[in-house]
Protein 1
Amino acid sequence: MTKKPFQEDPLATRVQFIKGVGPRMATVFASRDINTIKDLLYFFPRKYEDRSQLALVKDLTEGNSASLELTVHQAFVRPLRGRFSKLLEVKAFDKDKQWMSLKWFRTYKGFEQKFEPGTKIIATGTVKVFGSIREMVHPDIQFDLEDDVHVGRIVPIYTEIDGVPTKTLRRILDTALSMGIPALKEELPSSVLQKHKLPTLPRAIQEVHFPSENHGKNGNNDFANFKSPAHQRLIYEEFFKFEYHILSKRLNLEKERGHALDSAKLAASLKSWRAKLPFQLTKGQENSLNEIFSDISKPHPMNRLLQGDVGAGKTAVALLSALALMDQGFQVALMAPTEILAEQHFQNVLKAFGVDTPVKLLVGKTTAVERRSVQALLDSEGPALLIGTHALIEDPVKFRNLGYVIIDEQHRFGVDQRRKLREKSFIQPHTLVMTATPIPRTLALTAYGDLEVSIIRERPPGRTPIKTYLVRGPEHGKMIEHIKKELREGRQAYFIFPLVNDSEEEAFKHLTSAVSAAERLANETFPEFKVGLLHGQLSSNEKATIMERFRKNEVQILVSTTVVEVGVDVPNATIMVIEHPERFGLSQLHQLRGRIGRGQFASTCFLKTDRPPNLPTPERLEVMCETEDGFKIAEADLELRGPGEFLGTRQSGALPFKIASLIRDQEWLFKARDDVMELLKADPLLKSPDSKPFKNYLENSGKLESAHLKTS
Ligand code: ADP
Ligand code: MG
C-alpha cells in the first residue's frame, strides 16, 4: 500500500494522486463524479468477462472469445492501400506449436517493437477461422505475464470513461483497491450481514472488482448475473441505506406540527356528503377515506399516496375528504395536470355537491376579474376549494388557511412543484397525491417510499370488462361495422392518433394524423354522426367546448391526440380506437383505454396496427390484449422500460442506485426495507454496538447522501 502522508484517510485521497492518474485524467473522472479513492471503489464493473481459462489454438472456434498464451515468432508491417494505412501482423504459436495470427489495422508508434521474437504474451479477443488459419483482430495483449490483473481470471468491464483505456482503468482500479480497502470500514450492522450471510464491505468491494479465482469455474455465472455474494451484499447495502434515509425522513415529517382535525366531525361530514353521491362507496374507497381521516386527525401532516387503477373512483375519495376539511374551516387546493381535467373536477363538484359549494377554478385562461374573486374567497378566511392546474403554483394567489393539498395524476408533476404548492401555507398542510396508473410495489417503496399508501383495488360495481383486440389491415372493415352498430345504439367513440397534423418527416410520414383522420371519418366513414376534433394546439376554450359537446353527446366521435389521456370521464363512451399503438407506451395505452368501460355498457378497445402480419406483435400490445389489471400492467411496463422511463425524468432522480436494480433485485429491496423498519423500531437512536458501524456511516457520508435524495 502506498502511503500518502498529506492525506490521513486514504479513502478521501483525490484520484489524481493515484499512480497513472494525472490532472487531465482526474478531470475526466470528476466529470463522472469520481473524485476520491472511495468513489473509485464504488465505481462498479458493468459486466465481466471470463478469462479464467487459457485456451489452446486447437480448441478455438469461430466467433468465440478466448485468452491464449502465445510465443511470438515474428511481427511484420505491411502497407495497405491508402497513404497512411498499414497492417501489423504478428505470427505466434501456443505450447502445442499451433499457429495463430494477430492483426492490427491501427497501432500506436512503437507498438510493433514490443513483439520481439520469443516474447511470451497473452492475447484475448474474438476468434476468426479461415480454413486452417486462426486469427484475432485487435486483440487485447498482455506482455507482462506476472501481471494477473487482466487475464487468468474473471475480468471486470467498466463503463467506458472517455480517454481512459479499459486496461488503464482496470490498472487504476487495482491500485485504488490496494490503497483504499485496508481503510474501508464496515457500514452495516453485523446482525443483518449475519442474518443474510453476506460478506463484509472490504471483502465485497474487492471481490466485485476482481473476483477471486474460484469464481467462474464450473459454469458458475454468479458474477455475470450479479448474483455473487459480493454483489448481493452491495445491492442490499444500497437498498438498506436508501430505505433508512427515506424512512427516517418520513419519521421526522411525522413529528412535524400539522393541523389535527376533529375525528367525530370528520365522520359526520362524510356521512352527510356521501349521501349526495348517486352511488355507494366501494370497500377500497371506504378504506382509503378511513386511512386519510385517521392521518389527518393527528397533529402531524399527512403525506399519502392514493393508488387505484383508472376509473377506480379516486376523485370521490379526494373530494369527500376535501369537503370534510372544509367543514372544519380549512381551505383546500386540488391540482390537476390539464385544464380539461381541472374543469371536469370543478363541474363534478358543482353537480354533486351543489352550486353553493365554495369552489373556484383557477387555470391559465381564468380572467383577471375571476382571479380577483378567487382571491376574495380565500381572503374571507372561510372554507374554500380551489381547483386548478399548475397555475395554482404560478399564480400569486394567497391561501389564508391552507389545510389540504391534493394532487391528481401526480406523475405529471415534479417533486418541486408539489413542494411549492405546500409552501403556500405556514404549517405543513396535509397532502394527498393520486396516481393515474398503479405503481409497482418496488417503486412504491423507493421513488414513493416517503409516502404512506392507500390502495383502491376494485372498480365500482356494474362495470363490464373491456375487450381489447389487435386490428390489422384486413380486419378493419369488421371493426368499423362494430363501431357503427354501437353508435346507432347511442354510444360514443374515441379515435386516438399520435400526431396532430400530417408530417413530412421521414420517420412520421406513414402516420395518420388526427386532423386528416377527423376529416375522413366525418365525410367518408361515419357521415351520419358528428365528429369532433381535440388536440393540444387548440386554445383551452376550444378544448373545453369540444369536451363539453362530447360529454353531452352532441358529438359522437371524438378524434384526439393523447390530450384526452388523463382522467376524462364520459361513461357513455364505449369504443376506443388507438391508431399506431406501437407509438405509445404501455401505461399510456392503459390510460387511454381507461377512458372507456366507465358505465354500464360493454366496451371495446381496438389497437389498430399497420404492422405487416409477419412481424411479431410488440410485447406491450400483447400485454394490453391479455389483461385489464392496472397493477399487472404497471409491473410489465416497469420490466419493459425500466424505472427511469417508467417514472419519467421528473421523478427518476429519486432513484440513485448504482448497482441495485429494482427489477432484478426486488427480493433484496423487501428484505432491506423490513430490516430498516426493524432497526428504526428496536434502536431508533442507534445506540447499540451492533448499530455502531451504521451510525458512523450516517455521521460521515450518510448525511450528504440523505440530503441529496429527492423526495416529496
Ligand atoms: P379515477 O380513479 O380514474 O380518477 P374517477 O374518480 O374519475 O376515477 O371515477 C370514475 C367514474 O366512476 C366516475 O364517473 C365516478 O363518478 C364513478 N364512481 C366513483 N366511485 C363510484 C362508486 N363507488 N360506484 C359507482 N360509480 C363510481
Ligand atoms: Mg382521476
Protein 2
Amino acid sequence: MGILNLFRGKAPAKIVGERPVPRHIAVIMDGNGRWAKKRGMPRSAGHAVGAETFRTIATYCKDIGVQYFTVYAFSTENWKRPKEEVDALMDLFRKYLKEAAETMFQRGVAVRVLGDLTPLPADIHAQIEEVDAIADKLGPDAATASLCINYGGRDEIKNAVRALAREVKNGTIAPEDITEDSISAHLYTSHMPDPDLIIRPSGEIRTSNFLLWQSAYSEYYFTDVLWPDFSTADMDEAIDAFNRRSRRFGGV
Ligand code: IPE
Ligand code: IPE
Ligand code: MG
C-alpha cells in the first residue's frame, strides 16, 4: 500500500492561477430544495439548477488545477424522499452522465461514480460502465470528477469490513494484515488521496454520512450560500480560507 502513503502528510499545494489550490476538494451539494422553495418552485427545479452549478464548479476546479473534485449527489438516506423527487434526481444523473460520456475524453476529465450502485436503474448502470471505460482510457493522472451516488460513509466502511472479513475467512490474509491502508484500499475512493477541503453550503453544519473515514484530517468549510447560488467566487473564498489554515496532522 505504498502508493497511499504518498498521500499522507502535507501535500504540496499546486499553483496554476493566482492561488495555491488543494489537491482534492469535496462538496456536499446541499440547499437545492430550499433554493427552489424560496422561489415558489418545485424541489426538482432546485436540483436542476444545482446540477448546472456542479458543471460550472467542476469545470472551474479543473481549470485552476484541482486534481480531484468529489461531490455528494445522492446519499444512502436520500431514498426516503418522495418518489417524484428521487425520479427527478435519477433523470439528472442520466443527463449528466450522457454529457460526461460525450465530452470527458476531449476535456481530459475522468468522471467516476462512487457508491453502492446495485439499486440504481439498469440504464444508469450501463451509462456508468461507459464513463468508467473512458476514465480508464484517460488514465490515473487525469483530473478526476467523482459523483457520489447512493453513497453512505457507514455503508462504505461496512462493505470494506465485509470484504476484509471474507479475505480473512478464505485465508488470503491474517487479521493482523488489516491496516489503515488496507481499509482505505477497500473504500470507493481507493484510487484517490483523502480530501484536503470539504465544503458544505446551505448553512448545515454536519457531515450527513459523507466520507467518514477519508475526512479524518480534512479541513471543513461551511457557508450559508445555497448550492444553486454557489459561484466560482465562493469557491475562491473557500480555497482562500483553506490556505489560511494550519494543518498539523497531530504534529506541532
Ligand atoms: C440537494 O439539496 C441534496 C440532495 C440530496 C440532492 P437538498 O435537496 O437536500 O436541499 P435542501 O437541503 O432540502 O434545501
Ligand atoms: C446530504 O444532504 C446529502 C447530499 C447532499 C447528497 P441532505 O440534505 O440529504 O442531508 P441532511 O438530511 O440535511 O442531513
Ligand atoms: Mg439538504
